[in-house]
């Protein structure tokens, strides 16, 4: 049953990766690479023998998560500096509001959940998928963190790992639900919503396989 669910999780993950590729634009190359590598890790884990052990895939995906977060931070910083320059120029032109009447309050546009949390969702998804892949590993000595530890501490490490993994997965699924709900409410573009939903489904299926 675990193997079947692992195979089933590849379908929505592949759909999400296709959406990532389809929504590609300058500055999102790292997202495409991360999505493809994540699907490759899932495929490798579903078929034996594995090309790489689950722990090594987790390290690769964790490094990609850090890169995704760093790229997002750099892009956000550059975008904020550009926006502050533009607002300064517009403020110098007069004190009128967005509708042209003096003293009227400017319109404040609230960013969508995907715009605010899209990269966080992607980075968290890489960590969750990598950790779930470790938990589903069938290799001797690689079956999660159960074999980690010495002098009788392996059980405590395994429990701690399961608690952390459960927290990450729950947080990821809650964030997925929030982003999908916000996208539907705003009638956002279909690709980002489908991408988010597909990756959430893949994580949920993999988590169910570990129960």
Describe the structure.
The structure is a single chain. The chain has 211 residues and is mostly helical. The protein is built from 6 helices and no strands. The protein has helices at 2-22, 29-46, 54-92, 113-135, 154-186, 190-209. Helix 1 (2-22) packs antiparallel against helix 6 (190-209) and helix 2 packs parallel to helix 4. The protein is globular. The N and C termini lie close together (11 Å).
In the predicted model, the low-confidence regions spanning at least 5 consecutive residues are 92-96, 139-151
Rounded mean pLDDT is 79
Helicity range: over 70%
Largest sheet: none
Count the strands? Answer: 0
Q: How large, in whole angstroms, is the Cα Rg?
A: 21 Å
Q: Pairing-aware structural class of the strands and helices?
A: mainly alpha
Strand content: under 5%
> What is the 3D shape?
globular
> What's the order of the H and E elements?
HHHHHH
Number of helices: 6
Determine the N-to-C terminus distance: 11 Å
List keywords for this structure.
6 helices; 73% helix; globular
Topology:
Layout: H1 2-22, H2 29-46, H3 54-92, H4 113-135, H5 154-186, H6 190-209
Brief sketch in words of this structure:
By secondary structure, the protein is mostly helical.
């Amino acid at each position: 049953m675990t193997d079947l669910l692992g195979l089933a999780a590849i379908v929505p993950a592949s759909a999400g990766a296709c959406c990532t590729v389809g929504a590609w634009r300058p500055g999102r190359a790292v997202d495409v690479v991360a999505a493809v590598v994540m699907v490759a890790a899932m495929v490798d884990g579903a078929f034996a023998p594995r090309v790489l052990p689950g722990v090594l895939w987790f390290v690769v995906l964790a490094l990609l998560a850090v890169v995704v977060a760093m790229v997002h931070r750099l892009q956000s910083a550059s975008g904020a500096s550009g926006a502050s320059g533009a607002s300064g120029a517009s403020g110098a032109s007069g004190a009128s509001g967005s509708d042209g009447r003096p003293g009227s309050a400017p319109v404040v546009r609230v960013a969508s959940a995907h715009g605010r949390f899209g990269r966080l969702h992607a980075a968290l998804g890489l960590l969750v998928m990598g950790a779930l892949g470790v938990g589903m590993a069938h290799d001797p000595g690689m079956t999660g963190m159960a074999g980690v530890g010495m002098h009788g501490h392996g059980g405590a490490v395994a429990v701690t790992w399961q608690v952390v993994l459960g927290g990450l997965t729950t947080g990821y699924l809650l964030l997925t639900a929030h982003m999908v709900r916000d996208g539907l409410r705003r009638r956002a573009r279909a690709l980002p919503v489908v991408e988010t939903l597909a990756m959430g489904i893949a994580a949920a299926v993999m988590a169910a396989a570990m129960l």
